[in-house]
Write a structure and sequence with these properties.
alpha/beta, 6-stranded mixed beta sheet, 244 residues, 5-stranded mixed beta sheet, globular
């Protein structure tokens, strides 16, 4: 499922993984030019961080009011799976930071919600946030903007046509994408894997650039940076970094 951009806008502002770092997001948005730049998020708005509920509400507000493109990350995928089937999927989601997100959305602490059944947690989320499951279920997996493709995790570069990449790989792929030659003819912007892991240096929280692949998950939730790129249809015009 592909998102479609506002063709009247000649530039885009692409923001990396947020993971509930609401204050960093607000700081980053000061650099965005709403009148001339398509706002694109690479996914992973929630989990692990201190303000997932506020982040989710802000991202959705920007979508509704400014046409922001909100791509699907693996954490949105896990959250949706939990809402669809709480009995089977709660343990995996909670283990990956979902406990914090659910507690924040319900206005409770983690100790309190740990005493609730999985069914009750899902029911309360549906009651208090009736828009949530439908919103998550229609998040697109990628968007093209000129010479760029923006996707959460990456693409299957073994395929003759990258568009045939599975939805699972678009939100989960790592090493096979990072190391495979990019013959797509596109510049691929992605998040998912913190750039300090790609740089093999815990202090290197800037963008990762290799073979027309640009990694922009600066590991903000781990004390790194929130990253963003200003692009036109052909090149990166500016890199923004908000250090946590």
């Amino acid at each position: 499922m592909e998102a479609f951009v506002n063709n009247d806008l000649k530039e885009a502002f692409v923001i990396g993984d947020i993971h509930g770092m609401h204050t960093s997001l607000e700081e980053m948005l000061k650099n965005w030019k709403p009148d001339s730049q398509q706002l694109i998020f690479v996914g992973d708005y929630v989990d692990r961080g201190p303000n997932s509920a506020e982040t989710l509400n802000l991202v959705r507000q920007l979508q509704l009011e400014h046409g922001a493109i909100c791509l699907r990350g693996n954490h949105e995928e896990m959250f949706l799976a939990f809402l669809h089937n709480p009995i089977s999927n709660w343990a995996s989601y909670a283990r990956n930071g979902g406990m914090e997100t659910v507690a924040q959305l319900l206005g409770e602490n983690k100790q309190t919600i740990s005493q609730y059944s999985r069914i009750k947690l899902s029911r309360l989320l549906h009651e208090q946030h009736p828009w949530l499951e439908e919103w998550l279920s229609v998040l697109p997996y990628f968007v093209e903007f000129g010479d760029f493709v923006v996707v959460h995790a990456g693409l299957d570069l073994t395929l003759q046509d990258w568009r045939n990449t599975s939805s699972h790989d678009m939100v989960w792929i790592r090493q096979n994408f990072h190391e495979m030659a990019n013959k797509t003819g596109k510049i691929i912007i992605f998040g998912h894997t913190p750039t300090m892991n790609l740089h093999h240096d815990w202090n290197a929280t800037g963008i990762w650039h290799k073979d027309n692949k640009l990694g922009i998950d600066g590991g903000a939730v781990y004390g790194g940076s929130l990253l963003a790129l200003e692009i036109d249809h052909h090149q990166v015009k500016k890199v923004h970094q908000v250090k946590v």
